[in-house]
């Protein structure tokens, strides 16, 4: 419990990590933009629509906090792709967001494998795209040793916790999921053999029937992922659906207000 509270506190503190570390010229991105993301043109960078905050130099490359925000009057974002240019699998996650998350205030932790731009490409309701990002100095995040031994992984995988706090008229939800999110690039510290990739690849969070957000993820989301987000509550219970690459499925429902 203490560990999860600590991890949640790291996310809550993320805005204080803001630095003047704008996106850098990236030949890797020039290729990814066309071949992977499918964009012929560079999306505009407009903090009046979307901003991404990340530390200039990561304290821990396997747990880099990413904070996505919008001004109060910004147009709604329906979908967003999070890209870490220099990671082995650059597309870290793809999100869809429900209306109650607008304007966006969303945090997640990721692995960064080498000095890289971390960018979000968002799609608005009218189909227009906008980009935000930061250059992060980090190394080895995708191959960093797992934080728990294999026995602990097996005994706790799929456990979830949910807590809420009020911020004016909005609720701040924090969702914590126990999962090693093995990247396939890590070694078992006992056998020294590579641990096969095994990670959460599907996540859906709803309040009642209303969508909060979905995530389709790759290997770059951190171990024991934590998601912190602001939303407009409707009083209904929050339901979380999780799937991983080994076919495991977990479902849990939380009361609308939970400590």
UniProtKB/TrEMBL annotation:
Signal peptide: 1-18
Residues covered by the Ig-like SoxY domain: 46-142
Annotated keywords: Signal
Top-level lineage group: Bacteria
Tagged with keyword Signal: yes
Record-linked Gene3D superfamilies: Immunoglobulins, SoxY domain
UniProt-listed InterPro entries: Fuse-rel_SoxYZ (IPR030831), Ig-like_fold (IPR013783), Ig_E-set (IPR014756), SoxY (IPR032711), SoxY_sf (IPR038162), SoxZ_dom (IPR014880)
Domain Sulphur oxidation protein SoxZ: 163-254
One Pfam family per UniProt: SoxY
Protein's name according to its UniProt entry: Quinoprotein dehydrogenase-associated SoxYZ-like carrier
